[in-house]
Amino acid sequence: MLVPSVLAKPLDFAPLALIEHFARRIFDRVLKVHPDLFERLGDYRSKRFCFSPSDLPLHFVVIPEGRVVEVSRGIRQPTADAVISGPLFILLALLEGRCDGDALFFSRDLMVTGDIEAMLALRNALDDSVIDLAADLGGMTGPLAPLVISTARYIRSRALRGKAL
Amino acid sequence: MELICPAGTPAAFKEAVDAGADAVYCGFRDETNARNFPGLNFSREELGQSIVYAKARNVQTFVALNTFMRAGCESLWHKAADDAVRLGASALILADFGLMAYVAETYPQQRLHVSVQASASNREAIRFLVDAFGARRVVLPRILTVQDIARLTRQIDCEVEVFAFGGLCVMAEGRCSLSSYATGKSPNMNGVCSPASHVKYRQEGAEMTSELGDYTINRYGPGEAAGYPTLCKGRFSVGEESGYAFEDPVSLDVMDHLDALRDAGVSALKIEGRQRGKAYVAEVVATLKKSLTADASGRAALISRLRLMSEGQRTTSGAFEKRWR
Amino acid sequence: MSTPRKPSLSLGPIYYLWDGAKWRDFYFRIADEAPVAHVVLGETVCSKRQNFTEPHIADVVDRLEAAGKRVTLSSLAMVTLERESQHVRSLVFDSSHPIEANDLAALGLLRGTPHSIGPLVNVYNAATARVLAARGAENICLPPELPMRSICTLAAEMPDFSFEIFAFGRMPLAISARCAHARSKGLTKDNCQFICREEPDGLPLRTLDSQSFLVLNGVQTMSHSCVALVEELTEIASAGISRIRLSPQDCDMVAVVQIYDAVLSGRLDSGEALTRLAAIYPSTPFSNGFYHQEKGAAWVARARNATLGA
User: Fold this and answer.
1) Are C255 and C280 in contact (CB under 8 A)?
2) Is residue C54 part of a domain?
3) ipTM for this prediction
């Protein structure tokens, strides 16, 4: 299941700095709400995790320890210790713990490469967090706000219909 | 029959309780339990809080200490048992005779369950565990048919718990060193089967290859449902043929046999999956809880929804039916 | 520490299904020619196979005992059927020979009777070994998975107890209710036609990339590689281990026993011993990874080989 093109389109034109700003905001929010995420991540907190939505021309590299978020555009995946790729709504639903990563792997909706142990630690750490993107980002403003919020709602509706499972 | 549900994190624990578990089983974040995966399991504090949450809702907590104590490092397991008892665990799930002896002597009042990892598959074995350690319940290995189970329950003075849904061990549990043969990490000693540290996935065009250590485990065609990179569900060549030598990527579902298991005298049904996400736990626990009271046709409809979340997106009743052998 | 006694050699049970005559002749030759002190025998893997060897057991035991070997009877590794339970009961209650327990059923029934524990029972620590010793176990063959550090700890904590190490042969790695061996030939366990007889040394299983990996032996899965703890024998002996187990493969086991005997007696260095073993059991790689706390399939060569082998 892909991000509807009406949602993907603006990302082709949005400045990377802006996307990066929102990505970091999501990430900071996650850490603030759930600081023990770090504890669960253990030694893997210094790894470079790459999230590559298969339906967007973007890659997000996150290093939890340094609170680093890097966004890049293009087909080539940036260097990372572990990479997870799949449709954006699935990646975000996974971030929210609304679907089961193993099930998505079995159905081939998700692909994981690189350091599987690190990715598993991150998945488990996130799964223990209670993240609610729509609520967290509800007060957001700016040119990307409608996109982010509608994506969050979209995830919610899909996840609740069980499609992501 | 009680429904015994898995939790790998406090969040999953809460979901399991809220979804109707009679008991939740979990483990500490180290090699004292057989799901010693990165980022999974409970600190002492988390277990304490979870037990309080469960008790307030009349739900039991079983703590799995179901690996085998490493010689010379027994204190790690002893401490885990001490802490689980102190925090109010309803039962300890044990596999190692040495640890069973420790718990039976130190905490004679503590309920002791025999883990599936102990491989107690017959009446003499179970009588031994009851006599020697005061075992109150035994989790049966996934090598018995429903008929075997019915015969067994009549011969023993001990509650019986069986796996009903989730991952399927093809080999007798606790008696498999396939994973450590390939990786050096052992289910019995390190609590990991096919450890993530030794797993690699390679995407080659539309094909995906999984490897464990230096060994190729499987190659999936485009869109083909995948499974865990466990050796017993890998594709291999034997003679001129290639295929699933032991078992397909598939998981266990014996809900079709629910009435037979109840008639057989089974006390509890166990759901595998401490490594799964909380979404899975919530969905599976709620569905199985409903199916315990549903009629046969209602039950089938409920369970079919879970199949897509299963390994290889398929399920089997495994050794519970004789023809599986 | 006092000077360790030289460990004695023991021959483990044949895990494979061999024809009755081949099985009998194998043990006759062991009786006549092999310098082993202990022989453990009897069907261990699959209860369906028992008819093949039963007609010969009495002759084999007589011949081995006449040659001065101590004979122990092996119990089944997996007991689920009523018939199998009955078999273990009669083995324990009717046999005049000591039993090696390979499953919890035998373990339970043997309480108070002197017996051995086989490598298929999980003994990972001294606490467990003490529980078993208190119930009558006099010898424990430790699981092949145990690393040297665990072996040494166990031996040090129970210095007067007899521990045995699995030092030669394909390792038993897993056992299942399902028969992968029959399945690979389009059969099921219940209608297997004893097809595993076709592979007296196991049916090789390779990965999709043609890597040798495991062998199928009925319901049992074994390593493709053959454990060869030879360079480690000195260390094992000084740890106080009492017995060295050699597990029969379809090769010249008398020669294998002679090589281990020569190494233990100091008549043969380990490098030469390994070369000879490789000639006796060719085309199967050796492994010793578990002992060295690595993956079981690994081969860890000692640095001192270079000089010893020269």
Assistant:
1) yes
2) yes
3) 0.95
